[in-house]
Amino acid sequence: MPIVIAAINGKGGAGKTTALMNIAGEYALRGRRVAMIDMDARNNLMKWWTDCQEKDAQPEDVEVYSHKTARGLERWMKENATAFDHVLIDTPGEDTALVDPVIAFADLVISPIQPSKREVLGAIDSFQNVLRVNEALGRNCRHGVLRTRITVTVRHTELYRKIRPIIEDKVGTYLFRTEVFERNVYKDIHNGIGTLQMLEVTEAIAKARRETQALVGEVDEVLLSGKAIARGAA
Ligand SMILES: Nc1ncnc2c1ncn2[C@@H]1O[C@H](COP(=O)(O)OP(=O)(O)OP(=O)(O)O)[C@@H](O)[C@H]1O
Ligand SMILES: [Mg+2]
C-alpha cells in the first residue's frame, strides 16, 4: 500500500497546497510514483495541474485527481492506490466533515501554519481530529505542524517563539524542525510551471530545493520512526 500524507488545517491559506506540490515534486524526483488528490472545491491543485498541462510542464510521475466526497476518495483508494508509492491529499481550508475520512486513510497529517493565532488553533484542531479518528479506528496516523511563510521579521515575534512550547509541550504533537520560508518561487509554481524540482536551478531555487529536501527527509523520518505518533500530551 502507498504512504498517504494529507495536508489539513481548517483555518485556510497556511500553505497546504504549496507544501504538497513541493513534497510531490521531491518524491517524483526520487523515482516514486505520486498521486495527488484535490478534495478542495476551489480546485487549486487541479487548476495548477491543468495549467501545467497547457504549458507543457506537467511533472512526470505525478498524477492529480479530483475527489470532493468521502465516497469518491474511498473508491479511488480501493481501485487505484496500489499503483502509487505516495498519495498526497489536499483538503479545503475550512472546517469540513471530509477530514475524518481523509485521516482514516492517512499515515501522516501535516498541518501547515503561518505564525498566527488562528492558524495555530486550526492546527491544534486538526491534531485533535487525528487523535479522535485514531482512537475510533485503532489506527496510528501521525501528526505534525509545519511552519510556513517564515521571514526574519516573523521569527522575532512573540507568537513565533511560543509555537514550539505550545505545539510540543502543551498540545503534545510534533513540530517539524524544517521551516518553509517565504519565497517567491513558491508563489511562482502556482502558475502552472511544473514543480519546484523542474525549474532551472538558480541560487533562489537551490535554496528552496534544499528546504524541500530537508522537509521530505523529515517526513520520511517521522513515518519510519515512532516520532509524532498522535497520542496527545502526557
Ligand atoms: N512559503 C511560501 N512562500 C511564499 N508564498 C507562499 C508560501 N506558501 C504559500 N504561499 C502562497 O500563499 C498562498 C496560499 O498558499 P496555499 O494555496 O498553498 O495555501 P492553502 O493552505 O492551500 O490555502 P487554502 O486553504 O486557501 O487552500 C498562495 O498564493 C501561495 O502562492
Ligand atoms: Mg489549498
In a few lines, what is going on in this structure?
This protein has helices spanning 16-29, 44-54, 70-80, 99-105, 117-137, 158-171, 184-188, 203-224; strands spanning 3-7, 34-38, 62-66, 86-90, 108-113, 142-147, 174-175. With 234 residues, the chain is α/β, with parallel strands linked by helices.
Report what the structure shows.
The protein is α/β, with parallel strands linked by helices and 234 residues long. It has a single domain (3-224), classed as Rossmann fold. Helices cover 45% and strands 15% of the residues. It has 8 helices and 7 strands. It has a 7-stranded parallel sheet, with helices on both faces. β2, α2 and β3 form a beta-alpha-beta unit. α1 (16-29) packs across α8 (203-224). The model has no long low-confidence stretch (mean pLDDT 94). The structure holds adenosine-5'-triphosphate and magnesium ion. Magnesium ion binds at residues 16-17, 40, 44, 90, 93.
List the helices and strands and how they pair.
Blueprint: E1 3-7, H1 16-29, E2 34-38, H2 44-54, E3 62-66, H3 70-80, E4 86-90, H4 99-105, E5 108-113, H5 117-137, E6 142-147, H6 158-171, E7 174-175, H7 184-188, H8 203-224
Parallel strand pairs: 1-4, 1-5, 2-3, 2-4, 5-6, 6-7
The chain binds adenosine-5'-triphosphate (ATP) and magnesium ion.
Protein name: Chromosome partitioning protein
InterPro entries: DNA_Partitioning_ATPase, P-loop_NTPase, VirC1
Organism: Manganibacter manganicus
